[in-house]
Amino acid sequence: MEITAELTAFRAEMEAVTTSCTFLDHAAVSPLPHRVREAMAHYADCRGVTFGFREEFEEVSTRLRDRSARLIGATPEEIGFVQNTSLGLNIAAQSLPLEPGDNVIFCDMEFPSNVYPWMLLERQRGVEARRIPHDGGGLTLAALERHADDRTRVVTVSSVEFLTGFRTDLEALGAWCRERSIYFVVDGIQSVGAVPLDVRACYVDFLSCGGPKWLMGPIGLGFLYCRQELLERLTPPMAGCVSVVGREDWLDYDLTFLPSAARFELGGSNLVGMVGLLSAVELLLEVGVEAIHARTLHLTDRLIADLERRGYRVASNLDPARRSAIVSFAVPGDPQAAHARLQGAGVAVSLRETYIRVSPHGYNTEDEIARVGQVLGDAG
Ligand SMILES: Cc1ncc(COP(=O)(O)O)c(C=O)c1O
Fold first, then answer.
1. Fold for domain 5-24+288-376?
2. pTM above the 0.90 mark?
3. Using CA positions, which residue lies closest to atom 12 of ligand 1?
């Protein structure tokens, strides 16, 4: 596969990690690119000296809203900043106008961040959190059609499932939901930045995405997308000093929410995090999400072939349309021991449930991905 100048520059940004280990664990927490660390250090050195907090916030947040929107095909007005994916999903759950007896469908491969907000609604409002069996590692249209009924008001899913790496057919699920006026909520953290996405083409109503995995930003900052038409109809579940129009008219007490998704922001922002995330997202846009996606599929193709040749059982769905940058596989015997062997050899991967999970980003190499099989040897 051709290595473009952008991919070479991407790898150079990761030199601190590539010279110290084989890092194949971006589905957990990514190391920070060089420029991200530099940008945050620079901000820490100069905070408030050049512009003052307010002006800095305006400049950084405007750019970050714009770049985040670009990643997913949204407008900047549809992007609000949140601490993490979990908070964004809770905002979505608490904003939607759901009644007792309505149901929310998700599959049993969802990360708990996208399950508990709906279980809480069940307790609070008698909304049914309907967990359905996964179909080949994730949620499919066929499974949805089997389990939905006329009280289904929400379908919620990860764009890529954290354990199996199942890449959801968001376009098909989203279109199905929109035809039936069912809200479509997406947890984007396991794909945004590494897989192209167009929230309009996929009819997404809410998408929540934290920054520290595929976006390569610091921990504690992400964004929430809310479709413009929906913003106008929903009441946010929380209100703070920056959620409103005329926020510097401090003693007005006029609770008129901002027309944009910034209405979900409450108070002082994690500005150093924003500086870091902005730098990371700009890097990804320079490299190109399409190119990153192609590169990770190429690397995981090689991994899968190598694992199969060595006799391991790959747990991820192998349908090319469902593949992502995450591949999980079973090891005979003690998976903890296999994980420890990889760690001991300087290969960073995750142990999730009983599987070894490997998740390369666009800067990783064929030699690095081959290390997994080299360290573990044949399944025997
Ligand atoms: C699919 C998925 N959603 C949510 C989370 C948690 O994200 P956050 O810490 O941003 O809430 C994870 C973390 O592993 C995840 O894999």
1. Aspartate Aminotransferase, domain 1 (3.90.1150)
2. yes
3. 111
